[in-house]
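Dear colleagues,

As part of the handover before I leave the project, I'm documenting each prediction I ran so the next person doesn't have to rerun anything. This entry is a single chain, and its sequence is reproduced below.
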Amino acid sequence: MKVLVTGVKGQLGFDVCRTLSDRGIENRGVDIEDFDITDLDAVRAYITHYHPDAIVHCSAFTAVDKAEDMPELCQRVNADGPRNIATVAREIGAKMMQISTDYVFPGTGEEFYKPDDTPAPISVYGKTKRLGEEAVMELLDRYFIVRISWVFGINGGNFVKTMLRLAETKTDLNVVCDQIGSPTYTRDLALLIADMIVTDRYGIYHATNEGICSWAEFASEIMRLGGKSTLIHPIPSSEYPTKAVRPLNSRMSKDKLVENGFSRLPHWQDALVRYLAELNTNV
């Protein structure tokens, strides 16, 4: 099998490529320097030449607040991009995995969102990611849509790195406590993606590390495990306004993984321990 992975410079794309390589699966990671996903001719030329059996599409516009100011660019990347890739995947007979997000849901209530629950995004980012999902489902039969949340990995910026950096100069930090979800380590997620992409168990999945917490609880655990003395003060989202509205409830059910023979990811606290160790070895 030959796999093309977009967004290799990002957290998830980087780990997907190294996981596939570890398993002896031929793969190629690409990014904007290789081709522009918003240009169908460029997508067709590159992908047709490489001719993969599967495409894992990790590339995305993920700056949630900037998306509110740049909706057209966000739509080109998050909606038109997946449509272009799905179009070419159909032409060459490749399967496709579209990486999506908890932001396709409104984030109301306290129930765990199931993969077949009706999306109703409340931000530009969420709306464009949903359009990307719809494009893939419209064009392909052989597709996976994998919704993820709160990711952290070795390659690129993330909440964990931000908290550790702020801890160097701050004795106190205010962090929102009413947004609930599941932190997700890209190394764990990449293992699942590698398991999934070689199968024909297509459909929509939710994939995060196990357990739930608030951003404030996540930050407190980062400080504790990182040996930092910075105090975390929980605050409601109303006291930390942002351009884009965040979902308060990002709980997602992973039951479908087990139903289809895939393993759940480890607990997020276990993942955080391993991630901090990985960070230390890369200093």
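The chain is about 40% helix and 15% strand. Residues 40 and 84 are 5 Å apart (CA to CA).

All the best with the project,
I.
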